[in-house]
Design goal:
By secondary structure, the protein is α/β, with parallel strands linked by helices. The chain is built from six helices and 19 strands.
Length: 350
């Protein structure tokens, strides 16, 4: 009878909790494969069957093999693409470096057209797309006159432009230094200013006489001009501002049944009355007298005064003074003494 060799055996589960002696071989009955033990590793070291290794007997034919799963080249090793055997032994390698996470680059689904390059998509940057290459134009302009939004300047043109700007600034700094000396009152410093420097300051060529108009001014010119007007006409008010009416011109109110004199229209007025009314002085047609009106004086020429008129409370006159006792024209002289006092005198005209 032939003899047989039968090794110790057990399932995969049983092997996982078994530590065999060094050099011992057991049979995994679940996988039908050998397990080699080293005396210390629990479960031992399973030996793969030939069916577990595709193309095991034909590694040289892997060039034509199809991989249906992911291919991992571990431990920062390279994927090398060798040149043609007749050209030499050089290759192009792709190699991963240390990174914080997995990166998967997805290639475009279509072929590129002429002059296109691979580009990371803005929304999904790991999905690469084809994009047209950006053509740059080099210009060499010392003054940057073309003001191009896409052309790249040469180093020489940039240097020339910057040098010009620096030189201009240095000249301006020198002018400002001379001006700071003028502020201290040094007469000689003013003489240092050339006609070109004056043009920079004012935008126009100035003569010595014209420059002397502002020589010695120690504060804002407008402030000094305002101070010169103190006590004279106050330019900011309506009743002292010499406008188109020139204040002395006659303001023709026209024919009306309303006996109202607007002081903003001038000092002298003419009015033709068409009915009895109340003599009233106002700042303008709708505003009562205020402080601007105080001091205003003039004459009102009244035509067709043969009506019996009343007088506003601010009218101050002689008790016997009246307008309208006799048909005809009248001249009323007035003076605004206060916001509630307008002194008048009436003269009947022949």
């Amino acid at each position: 009878m032939a003899k047989k060799l039968q090794l110790r055996r057990g399932t995969t589960t049983q092997h996982n909790s078994f530590t065999g002696a060094e050099g011992e071989v057991t049979i995994d009955t679940t996988k039908d494969s050998l397990v080699v033990h080293d005396g210390s590793t629990q479960g031992g070291h399973p030996i793969a069957k030939s069916s577990d290794l595709p193309n095991l007997n034909n590694y040289a034919a892997l060039a034509g093999a199809n991989f249906t799963g992911n291919l991992l080249i571990d431990n920062a090793q390279e994927l090398r693409l060798g040149e043609a055997d007749g050209s030499g032994t050089n290759y192009t390698g792709l190699k991963a470096q240390a990174q914080s996470g997995d990166i998967t680059l997805t290639l475009p689904a279509v072929a590129p057209t002429a002059n296109q390059v691979l580009k990371a998509d803005s929304s999904t940057p790991t999905t690469l797309t084809w994009a047209s290459d950006v053509a740059l134009t080099l210009i060499d302009e010392d003054n940057m006159a073309s003001d191009s939004a896409s052309a790249v300047p040469s180093q020489q043109s940039v240097k020339a432009y910057v040098d010009t700007q620096v030189a201009t600034k240095q000249a301006a700094d020198a002018d400002l230094t001379s001006l700071s000396n003028c502020q201290s009152g040094a007469a000689a410093a003013l003489a240092l200013l050339t006609s070109t420097e004056v043009e920079v300051l004012d935008g126009a060529t100035l003569s010595t006489t014209e420059l002397n108009y502002v020589d010695g001014v120690t504060s804002a010119i407008q402030t000094q001009l305002n101070a010169k007007g103190a006590g004279d006409a106050v330019l900011a008010t309506d009743f002292q501002n010499w406008t188109g009416t020139q204040r002395g011109a006659v303001n023709a109110i026209g024919s009306t049944g309303t006996f109202t004199i607007p002081l903003d229209a001038g000092n002298n007025h003419s009015i033709t009355l068409s009915g009895a009314s109340t003599l009233t002085f106002k700042k303008n047609s709708s505003t009562a007298l205020d402080s601007d009106c105080v001091g205003v004086s003039g004459t009102v020429y009244v035509t067709n005064g043969a009506y019996t008129h009343a007088y506003a409370s601010h009218i101050k006159k002689a008790a016997t003074t009246t307008i309208g006792a006799t048909a005809g024209d009248y001249a009323i002289s007035y003076f605004v003494a206060a916001t509630d006092k307008v002194v008048i005198d009436v003269i009947a005209l022949a």
